[in-house]
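**Backbone shape codes:**
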Amino acid sequence: MGTGLSKLLYPGDANLTTTDWDMSFLGSFGTAGSPTVQRALVILNQPFSQDLLHTLWATCSWRCCADGGANRLFDLLGEVDPDEKHDIRSLYIPDLIKGDLDSLRADVRDHYVSKGVTVIQDHDQDSTDLMKCIQFIQEKEAKEEQEASVQFLVRARGVHMFSLAQYEIIILGGLTGRLDQTVHTLSYLHKLRKARRKVFVATDDNIAWVLDEVFTIDKTRITAEEIQGKHRILIDHDRMGPTCGLLPVGVESTTLTTSGLRWNLDNAESSFNGLMSTSNHLVPEEQFVTIKTSKPIWWCAELRKRA
């Protein structure tokens, strides 16, 4: 299949919106150092490399650590190059540490408090540290939107209307380590899709996120037959692949149509009890992967190590 074919956005469904997924924040497209959209980074208490940290840190304007994620950040940067003249930790100061703080070490807390980092202890046992951090981001967005509305109201008449976009959220960790924590990540983002459009999970091995079945503010304006998610993913082949997967997690089944993959699906049913497209491959000649799904699924792609 040629590159041109993978760019077709299902012309028979032209009345539906296609969601574009831009993966330039992974770095090799040259835009990671100067984010063009607002992104927030949430660092979890799981291993990660300095290379991945640097890439994601550079593309985010706001960063936080979920409880023991601060330990990971502190320890990694202390081990990178002990011969460096400067304190590399000073280059990676998060804006917030939040959680129940049962994992945060005292020396790590003292270090970041001395750097002016806000530390919030939340004892709510019905939410995980990840959920606590996402809640803070939502509160931050609401406050920023209110402030922006006030600024707009005091401006002179005739200015253009605007809307304050959500932060795109990148979660560092969440798909490695304990199985129960991995399942929590899968479940939480499946549910979170109703409130947020773009939340990514990144590890040194994978980049993954949920593709929803429909993207429209008012679902009453489309018919039941039209409730299908259409997605176009810009593939950075220097950083992604070769393997990828479309996983029907959290749904009984879904119907999938794809282009741009080694083994494409054509109106194929996918479920845990039937077909699942795992260990599929990205095609080097294809710039885009397009996916149409009748139910929300997890999309994942392997991350290549930098040369």
